[in-house]
Write a structure and sequence with these properties.
Blueprint: E1 4-5, H1 6-10, E2 17-21, E3 26-33, E4 39-47, E5 51-58, E6 69-77, E7 84-89, E8 94-101, E9 110-119
Parallel strand pairs: 1-3
Antiparallel strand pairs: 2-9, 3-8, 4-7, 4-9, 5-6, 5-8
Organism: Semnornis frantzii
Protein name: FYCO1 protein
Length: about 130
Amino acid sequence: KLPLMVEEILNFGESNRELFIKSSTYSIIPITVAEMGLTISWIFSSDPKSISFSVIYQEAEDTPLDQCKVLIPMTRCNSHKETIRGQVKVRNPGIYTLIFDNTFSRFISKRVFYHLAIERPVIYDGSDFP
């Protein structure tokens, strides 16, 4: 579990991070977001073989799991063959959790190479208008 704040992700730069996920387990990356309108985007690949991926939203840390909103249902990704890209728009402040699930694999541990980015919306204020 790696709780991240928006500022930490903004400081990622272009570098990739790595997760080691043992067989029959999963890893989560909770991202705490306070402001609406941001876009959280990700790119990841896995080695060896596929990994399952999901994104859930929690209003607060103490929100029961059964009250979390599934933004992207658990999907098996062939991320060992192609890079997976995606994004989610922040509509409400809270915790957006990326889940990398290897529970289906009984013997093979996986490495996930990922990159996260946060984009702020461009708000046109007309200041460059002559």
